[in-house]
Amino acid sequence: MPPGIVIRQALPSDAEAIHALMRPYVMQSLLLARTEAEIIELTRHGFVAVRMDGDDEVQLVGFSAVEIYSPKLAELQCLAVHHQCQGTGVGRALVRHCVNRAKDLNVMEVMAISSSEKFLQGCGFDFSLPDQKKALFCQLRPRPKG
To answer: In terms of pTM, does the model score above 0.70?
Structure first.
């Protein structure tokens, strides 16, 4: 992690900055579009990376959340890191915080749906679980654009 960047629990008041951070990735169809209300809901189990100047937060540079579906399953969602901070460990730290939140809540499995396969594999995710379960999908409607 770069000096001066810290990870903290996301707050509903971060929603506007999170929305702005996600916008370029939504426009490239790398992330699903979310309403501000949906982002506020995700802050419950979400984390932000913020650039600090002394004790002051000056820029939100990353966000990720884990959505808890049941004691068996949670999903890593909305991982976004400002382009200037990519490759610095910010994304990896956000994923670690989300996985630890799921672990603290005694969730059995965390899944991630992403176009960044190598990155997620480097964070401990794989295409199947040790007992060889695999996720298969059936698209019911087109994904919304931006």
So the answer is: yes
